[in-house]
Write a structure and sequence with these properties.
By secondary structure, the protein is an alpha/beta fold. The chain has four domains: 32 residues, no CATH class; 177 residues, no CATH class; 255 residues, Rossmann fold; 195 residues, no CATH class. Strand 6, helix 6 and strand 7 form a beta-alpha-beta unit. Helix 16 crosses helix 17. The radius of gyration is 27 Å and the shape is globular.
């Protein structure tokens, strides 16, 4: 955000002014984000007047803390002044911001070379599991994404002020962090001293730690929440040398939008990217950034992926409702104004000949837009409209073309993502532009000519004339932050390039584990053991995996996506209960930290190549149609690229007593994956 836009925002909205100048500090005319509300040497903190510390906290709060927060700070200051008495060393940071999720750690104490993370629950008489997960998440987040914490020793502390004292038991979260320790307001200092004696470390530079580079890779749900709270995409995304990262892509699209506004032209740009590279995140960022109602500029994020839209709408509504203490229905109305299911946006166009209120429309998974035949069938069956002769891309461009001057469409395109009948791919977009909208400016990435985007069509014939903008390609997977080669590995695996797949997996297997098992119970135990804090995990299977039902995986049972992704492990409908399985349709565009991929006999391996089948009635049938084969292959591509940190593949043993689940249906898959180097649990 540049200074001109800051001044404009401040003039238009006084609360924005307070946010900007409380949350940022001025440095030679440049605004910089402040990472903490208070910082000081422990000795100075102990000598500093209570009201001086309290005043610094309240003056730095961007949202003018309510009385509950102010009373909490008062208690925390008093407890810290008492419990740190006698400490001759250390640095204390209060309200340290973690940009990835817009959260703040109550306190960070750098003492004896150890990073203590302090999470206070003032007045709490127990040690709630949710609070333990919260402070564990802080440690995991810093370990993975905070440069100065990668080799530091981290100790998460949960301080429930009124809870009974627990015997301290030291256990390892990983090689450089303890499992969270529980204490109350009277034994906090004793606990810190005991840990410091037990784990001596070299001194840390407090300034270096506080100002350390933070390079997060959030889940799409976390990212949406952070963006909605006002964080910039640069705060919550990585910056990888040699790759067109999210901020560069966002900047490139913004330049196209500004150019179109200035010239009064209409433009369409195609953003490509590997699975998990952040295409959806880039689109959400743009939809939040371009909300300028006072400038007659609305933006909307559109997707035909109903589970993705439903999960994001619910997550943002819950978040705003909890933060601002408003009814969730009121929050939902606001969220739905800029995140919409594409079919409702399309239906609005049928009601009048007026242009949409949005000037910028971002279409997620644009390659999945419907063909002319599919849309005509839908219009006649659902809307009673006969002789409809437009593909979905043509119809949507025509709707935006109603604006008399400028408009911009942003198409987010994934390679090898088509998974359903009637999906048009990129060809329908370029056919519509070439035949009906030659006055539109077209911008593409330099990778859109790859076969995984063009579907094998001749690129020059398909695309025609367009301006190439390299920054419109996202080349680095953010989902698999532990390995950026997972997407390449999955492609090689599904293309039966076993030598290449084995080489790729060997390179990242220590950082991103993939395991194999013939027992579903083992797979469930593995993800439970791997997941720490509130990390997510769940069962996944292809929608055609109909013969996994004997093993407890019933894909015909439709999940409730918002509940499955967002509810806690105690809910039997939630992912972490490991009872309901999500299919490629439920999970495309979303992700888990750890997953169980349940592999059925619909995609078999004969030792040389994959064999494609579907279960019809009571028998398996060969799939001969190339398009349907591609859909099945892409379904497994989606499932194998959903996990951020690792996954386990469950392959049943089969049964000679059941002709629909014979062992030979599954053994070839098992042998192929073992050949690639995937080890069995």
């Amino acid at each position: 955000m540049n200074n001109c836009r800051l001044v404009w925002a401040a003039w238009k909205e006084p609360t924005v002014y307070r946010f900007l100048f409380n949350y940022y500090i001025r440095d030679y005319g440049v605004l910089r984000m402040k990472r903490y509300y208070y910082a000081g040497n422990v000795c100075d903190f102990l000598l500093e007047d209570f009201y001086s510390v309290f005043g610094k906290l309240t003056s730095e709060d961007a949202f003018e803390a309510d009385d509950l927060q102010k009373n909490t700070w008062k208690e925390e200051i008093n407890i810290l002044k008492r419990e740190l008495r006698g400490f001759s060393d250390g640095t204390l940071l209060l309200e340290y911001t973690i940009p990835r999720v817009g959260a703040r750690v109550d306190g960070v104490l750098l003492y004896e070379g150890i990073v203590f993370l302090l999470e206070f629950k003032v007045g709490e008489r127990t040690y709630p599991r949710a609070a333990l997960e919260q402070v564990t998440d802080y440690a995991l987040d810093l370990r993975c994404f905070h440069r100065e914490s990668r080799n530091a020793f981290l100790v998460p502390l949960l301080i429930c002020t009124q809870a009974p004292e627990r015997q301290i038991q030291l256990g390892m979260l990983d090689e450089q962090a303890l499992l969270p320790l529980c204490c109350n307001e009277h034994n906090l200092g004793k606990t810190i001293r005991m840990v410091a004696r037990s784990y001596r470390r070299e001194a840390l530079s407090a300034q270096a730690w506080a100002d350390s580079v933070y390079a997060p890779t959030p889940t799409i749900i976390e990212a949406a929440r952070a963006l909605y709270r006002g964080h910039d995409v640069r705060d919550i995304s990585r910056s990888d040398a040699g790759a067109a990262n999210l901020s560069q892509t966002t900047d490139a699209v913004n330049r196209i939008i500004e150019r179109s506004k200035a010239s009064g032209h209409k433009a369409i740009c195609f953003v490509t990217g590997v699975p998990g590279a952040g295409k959806t995140l880039a689109g959400l960022n743009l939809s939040v950034e371009r909300q300028h109602a006072d400038m007659d500029e609305h933006a909307v994020f559109l997707s035909g992926n109903y589970p993705l839209v439903a999960v994001l709408q619910e997550a943002l509504a819950r978040d705003q409702s909890e933060r601002e203490h408003i009814r969730k229905t009121a929050a939902q109305r606001k969220v739905k104004s800029f995140i919409q299911i594409i079919h409702r946006f399309r239906d609005e166009a049928m009601l009048s000949d007026a242009p949409p209120c949005e000037r910028v429309a971002i279409f997620d998974e644009a390659q999945r837009a419907w063909t002319r035949e599919q849309l005509a069938h839908f219009m006649e069956r659902k809307k009673g409209v006969r002789d409809f002769r437009q593909s979905e891309p043509e119809f949507l461009i025509r709707y935006m073309d109603r604006h008399p001057d400028w408009a911009v469409i942003v198409c987010l395109v994934g390679g090898g993502q088509e998974i359903n009948t009637g999906e048009a791919g990129l060809a329908a977009w370029f056919d519509a532009l070439r035949e009906h909208f030659p006055h539109w400016d077209v911008y593409i990435s330099d990778r859109i000519t790859d076969s995984e985007y063009t579907g094998g069509a001749a690129a020059a014939e398909l695309i025609g004339t367009a301006d190439i903008v390299p920054e419109l390609h996202l080349a680095v997977s953010l989902r698999s932050f532990r390995s950026e080669r997972v997407a390449d590995f999955v492609k090689a695996l599904l293309d039966c390039e076993d030598v290449r797949a084995r080489s790729l997996y060997t390179a990242f297997r220590k950082d991103y584990p993939i395991m194999l098992t013939r027992e579903l119970a083992c797979a469930k135990d593995w993800v439970r053991q791997k997941a720490k804090g509130s990390q997510s995990y769940g069962l996944t299977a292809s929608s055609g995996a109909l013969r996994l039902r004997p093993y407890g995986v019933w894909v015909e049972n439709k999940i409730d996506a918002p509940v499955w992704f967002l509810n806690g492990r105690e809910d039997v409908r939630a992912a972490r209960y490991l009872e309901e399985a999500a299919t490629e349709f439920d999970i495309q565009g979303l992700e888990l930290d750890w997953s169980v991929v349940c592999w059925d006999a619909n995609l078999r391996h004969d030792g040389t190549e994959f064999q494609y089948h579907r279960f019809q009635g009571s028998v398996w049938q060969n799939i001969r149609d190339p398009t349907r084969r591609a859909y099945l292959k892409n379904a497994y591509r989606v499932l194998l690229t959903r996990a951020r940190q690792g996954f386990v593949i469950f392959i049943p043993r089969g049964s000679l007593a059941d002709p629909t689940c014979l062992p030979q249906f599954y053994d070839g898959i098992y042998r192929y994956l073992k050949k690639i180097g995937i080890e069995e649990i």
